[in-house]
Each structure stands twice: as C-alpha cells, then as structure tokens.
Amino acid sequence: MSETTAQPRRWLDLANPTRFVALAGRCIPWLAGLSAAVLAVGLWLSFASPEDYQQGTTVRIMYIHVPFAWLSMLCYTIMAAAALGTLVWRHPLADVSLKAAAPIGAVFTGLALVTGSIWGKPMWGTWWVWDARLTSVFVLFLMYLGIIALSRAIEDQSRAARATAVITLVGFINIPIIKFSVDWWNTLHQPASVFRLDGPTIDASMLWPLMVMAVGFTLLFLTLHIAAMRTEIFRRRVAAMRRIEARRVETRSP
Amino acid sequence: MSVHDLYVAAAYAAATVGIVGLIVWVLADQRARRREIAQLEASGVRRRSDRNAGSRA
Fold first, then answer.
1. C-alpha to C-alpha distance for A98 and A81, rounded to whole angstroms
2. What pTM was estimated for this model as a whole?
C-alpha cells in the first residue's frame, strides 16, 4: 500500500467503534494521569500566586471559573463539529461524540455559572445580574439540558441523532454571542483579558496559574469525553444485543 | 480567615463536588454497561460482528 492511501486509511480505522474502544483503553489511563498531574501543579500555583491588588484573595476563583467558562464553549464547539459529522459525513462516531459530550458540557457550564456567581457577590455586590454575558451563558446551560433531553427522548437512534445534530448546529449561534457579548453590549462582566490582539492584560504571576489550570481542565475534559464515548458505544452494543435476544425469544415462541 | 476566603472555599468546594460527581457518574455508567454486556454474553447473546470474528478465528 502506498503512503498516500495508508494515511486516510488510518483515519478510517478510527471511525470503527471497536478500534476506537481499543484506542480509548490505551489513552484514558495516560490522559487521566496527565490531567491529575497538571491540575495538581495548577492548584499549587493558584494558591502560591500573589493576591490581586483589587480582588484580593478572590482572584483565586478566576483560576477555576475561567477554565470552566472556556470549556463550556469548547465543548459546544466540539458538539457542533460532531453535528456536522453526523449530517454531512455520517461518521459513525460523530453522534456518539455529541451525545457523550453534552452532560460534560452541562457540568462545566453549570460550574462556570456557580463559581462566577460566588465571585460576583464579594466583587460586584450581587450573586446575579441579567446582563448579556451571564444571560447568554445561562442560555448555553439550558441548551445543553435540552440537547441531553432530546438525544434521549427519541427511541429511533438515527432520527434522534439527526434531530440532535440540527438543534446543536442551530444553537451554535450562541457561541459567538457569548464571546462578543462583552464588546457588543454594556455589561457588568469584564471584557476579554487573555486572548486579545494586543496580548494578555493579566500579570504573569496570575496568568501562569490560570493557563496551567486551563490546560489541566482541558485534559480532564478530553479524558472524560473519550471515556463517555466508549460508554456510549457499550450502550449501543447493549441495545443491539437486547434486540438479538428479543428476536431469539420471538422465534422460539410458538 | 476572612470573609473573602469563605467565598474562595465555597467556589472550590462547588467545583470539587461537580467534577468528582461527573467522574463518578462516568465511571459508574461505564461499569453498568460492561456488566450488562457480560450478562447478555453469559446468556448466549452474541452480536453479528462478534459471531463473524469468532468464525474467522
């Protein structure tokens, strides 16, 4: 086989659920160990870093709140890509990926809202305001819950996959709204301070813990997503085996 | 311990509960599905792909 045909072949191999399960089994322990190690270093840096001159010690909430908020959007972006994979390429693992990511995204979004609210009380003097950033993230949380419900409500797996993919793609419009809400509208939430054209506005002593925690949580997200995808493949195998069992009982009965 | 320390503690506690709960749920779900597959296989149910793999071996 030539080099050029071998390369796409390797990608096609990943589309095979059995090969994915085997690959996941090899990757998950390494990814889990790596995420635990990076998060441990990140936590140490978070509590060893200096207090902010305005926020005081509450700046440490940012080291978990910001990664949760980033991951809430990254997870939805991955789900939107998976939705395209379902509708356009009919990739066998695309729907598995979307369905497995939704509960993880919901937890990360919920945690971004809760930790943001806990930070908001001492800093803004309120737990919650219905401003553009907070409201659009709350809508994202509701969208995750809706996608989880829809993907489990339709019994026919292929119909459920198509419906979920369409809703996920429609909901993707909320991601740029979240990102640019702080620029488009007058909000209480501060504008972007890390990913800016003119560079981060955070001091290095606080940027490092933030970035290490972000890498750690991203690795944790990948670990959980791959593990949940493997479980979803197992769930589909159980369903297929139950159908075989039901047919066997039917043919046996007179 | 200042009042602000309590807010930090509450945020990290909430994050710990959420993340540990998610990990436990993912592991428990996986274990339950593996158990179901083992029970079905023990009762003689085989997927077509498993049977084909068995006959090729």
1. 9
2. 0.89
Which sequence spans correspond to the domains of chain A?
65-205+225-252
Cβ distance of B37 and A237 shorter than 8 Å:
yes
B5 near A CB under 8 A: yes
Q: Are A12 and A88 in contact (CB under 8 A)?
A: no
The gap from C-alpha A49 to its chain's centroid, in whole angstroms, comes to 28
Q: What is the 3-state secondary structure (H, E, C) of A143-186?
A: HHHHHHHHHHHCCCHHHHHHHHHHHHHHHCCHHHHHHHHHHHCC
B46 phi, psi to nearest 5 deg: -130, 140
> How far is the C-alpha of A151 from the C-alpha of A34, rounded, in Å?
31
Q: Which of A134, A131, A127 is nearest to A112 (CA)?
A: A134
Q: Chain B residue with minimal CA distance to A123? A: B4
Residue A125: what are its φ and ψ, rounded to 5°? 85, 10
Q: Which amino acid is at A86?
A: T
CB contact under 8 A, B18 and A114: yes
pLDDT at A75: 97
Indicate if the pLDDT at residue A31 is higher than 50: yes
Q: Are A167 and A147 contacting, i.e. CB atoms less than 8 angstroms apart?
A: yes
Alpha-carbon Rg of chain B, whole angstroms?
Answer: 22
Residues of A in contact with B2 (CB under 8 A): 56-57
> pLDDT tens, A109-145?
999 999 999 999 999 899 999 989 999 999 999 999 9
What does the pLDDT look like over B6-40, one tens digit per residue? 999 999 999 999 999 999 999 999 999 999 999 99
Q: Cite the beta strand spans of chain A per DSSP E.
A: none
